[in-house]
Amino acid sequence: RNVPNVGSTVQRAKPARRLCCTSVRVLCWPPALGTLSFSTQLCDMSGETSDALPLVSIITPLYNSEPFVEELSASVVAQTYTGPIEWLVYDDGCTDDSIAVLRNQCGPALTDRGIELLITTAAADNQRRGCGYGRNRLVEKCRGEYLCMLDSDDVMAPERIEAQLEALLACSEPRNTLVGSNFTRNRHDAMPRYTAWLNAMTVSQLHLQFLRECPLAMPTWFLHRDVHRAVGGFAQAHNHNAEDLKFAYDHLKRGGKLHKVCKPLLMYRFHENSITSQRAVPKELIWGMRIDALQTLVLDDSTGSPFSKGFTIWNAGREGRRVYRSLSPANQAKVRAFCDIDPKKIAAGGYVHRETGRRIPVVHFSEARPPLLICFKDGLGGGDGAGASAAGTGG
């Protein structure tokens, strides 16, 4: 490293004047193979009205991302948002020259653009703390009213901040809404069905399909800082904690809203050293979190939802039975029946739960009594198999 570790320190690179990007031309978006080229014109905007717009804080935990830092920084510089921006970076114990490149190669362009750069170094013991810890420390130090999450190996579209802030402010509860967006993938063959599922989802489907996975990709999140405060921040365990899914579920449990911009505003990179490829979250942990969210947000009597009075599970096969077995006894009692299209399952006369001896009837879907809890197995045709076991809700 070219930058000495001096403990938990903060270094601000403060611009001498406010500059605004008046013309940004994207030569290639979405970026092909991660290559994004910009042509920018900068002019002094002192005395203009841009400072009347809210301050946006970009939040980036960083670990050994030297190959991507210049491209990352270029996408920050190219933002069309004319209000004030600060960029906070948490150095999670980098052992390469990521920070040196960010400060020396990228710093001048950020200063010229009027973007304040704040770098927080790792703890004195130089131990990695993980993305959740890094994001929480940066949110504590930032001054912005709005938070833009950005991973250190990704690339933003020039209009990202402008588009997501506009979408958030148009929501009925902007201080209680988590906004995401569509995205492109690099590599293009990385988790193709998962990517297609997220990008195809409409705004109205976000609150129906959250039990499969988080319906907003975490690197695309944009939110008011009150959301982070109300949730209590990200889980901070270094490994195996699914901090994005936990944050989203905790947000929903306290009545939070979801929204998205249905256009690609981020290039989401996948490579052998990325967090996604290195950190395998145990499937049982994910399953338990989803069942907990199902029971708390959908089935509990306090929700007042139709499901709290009784429901039908659509899928008398392995996935449907697994969901039933995972429910609390009180919620198992709310299952009226399974429904299916398989004549053999229907003819069997029902499913008997071994632990209780209860027989739950299996009926044809045309005879099912709503509401329906739809359980399905993804990845049966080969490919990434993302979200291999998933539950969704239907009215």
Give a verbal description of the structure:
The protein contains twelve helices and 18 strands. Helix content is about 30%, strand content about 25%. Helix 1 (about 70-75) runs parallel beside helix 2 and helix 7 runs parallel beside helix 9 (about 285-300). The chain has helices at about 70-75, 100-115, 130-140, 160-170, 190-200, 225-230, 245-255, 275-280, 285-300, 320-325, 330, 345; strands at about 10-15, 20-25, 40-45, 55-60, 85-90, 115-120, 145-150, 155, 175-185, 220-225, 255-270, 310-315, 335-340, 350, 360, 360-365, 370-375, 390-395. It is elongated. By secondary structure, it is of the alpha/beta class. The chain has a nine-stranded mixed sheet, sandwiched between helices. Residues about 1-10, about 15-50 and about 380-395 have low confidence and may be disordered.
Number of helices: 12
The low-pLDDT segments are 1-10, 14-49, 380-395
Mean pLDDT: 83
Q: How far is the first residue's CA from the last residue's CA?
A: 56 Å
Which word captures the global form? elongated
The residue fraction in helices comes out at: 25-40%
Strand order of the largest sheet: 1-6-5-4-7-10-9-11-8
Strand content: 25-35%
Which terms summarize this structure?
alpha/beta; 9-stranded mixed sheet; 28% helix; disordered C terminus
Brief summary of the model shown:
The protein contains twelve helices and 18 strands. The protein is α/β, with parallel strands linked by helices.
Secondary-structure topology with pairs:
Blueprint: E1 10-13, E2 19-26, E3 38-44, E4 56-62, H1 69-77, E5 85-91, H2 98-113, E6 116-120, H3 131-141, E7 146-149, E8 155-156, H4 160-169, E9 177-186, H5 192-200, E10 222-224, H6 225-231, H7 243-253, E11 257-269, H8 275-278, H9 283-299, E12 311-314, H10 318-326, H11 329-332, E13 335-340, H12 343-347, E14 351-352, E15 359-360, E16 362-364, E17 372-377, E18 389-394
Parallel strand pairs: 4-5, 4-7, 5-6, 9-11, 12-13, 12-17, 13-16
Antiparallel strand pairs: 1-6, 2-3, 7-10, 8-11, 9-10, 14-15, 17-18
